[in-house]
Write a structure and sequence with these properties.
- With 198 residues, the protein is an alpha/beta fold.
- 39% of the residues lie in helices and 20% in strands.
- It is built from seven helices and eight strands.
- Strands 1, 2, 3, 4, 5 and 6 form a six-stranded parallel sheet that branches. Strands 7-8 form a two-stranded antiparallel ribbon.
- Strand 7 and strand 8 form a beta hairpin.
- Helix 1 packs across helix 7.
- The longest helix has 25 residues, at 169-193.
Amino acid sequence: MENDKYKLVVVVGSVREGRFGPVVASWVAEQAAAHGGFEVVVVDLAGIDVPLSLPAVSPKYAGDDYPRPAGMAPLTSALQSADAFIVITPEYNHSYPASLKAAIDWHFTQWTAKPVAFVSYGGAAGGRHAVLHLENVLTELHAVTVRDGLAFPRYFTAWQDGRPLDPEAPGYAKTLLEQLFWWAGALHSARGTTPYPG
């Protein structure tokens, strides 16, 4: 914690050309800053070296000795120091991008016993299929997924000038952030008191 705020890392999961993720992330970061309980850091995977091929050893067991590329250091550092995460994901073929899966798989303990919320966007489903898959993956890494997320169906017509047109969107964001803040505090205290047994 810094200045009594929890460090929130907003991860932009898409690296596709012409992606909409940074627009969503900017608005989400603005909502999180307005909440007042977070120090907000946006991490964009498009600017980080995240190879698809992985070392033979698992990052769970290798710990600090895991051989990550030097260009991944900013991502690893951000994940390690985070108290909470918001993952911004589109939906590609009923799931989430390979770039996001690779970023998750290069790490393990950095996610453990920390809360993760999701903001998705896509076509009719608004990215919800991607979030369902992410919940399964991050649960395996012992992260705690927050129930209330944000989904933006047909984002290409639902946003204007970098903001969602739905007037209720800020209220939904507030609910997400309140739950994330609660979990960030509870898990920060728990990690500081007792090592996580996972």
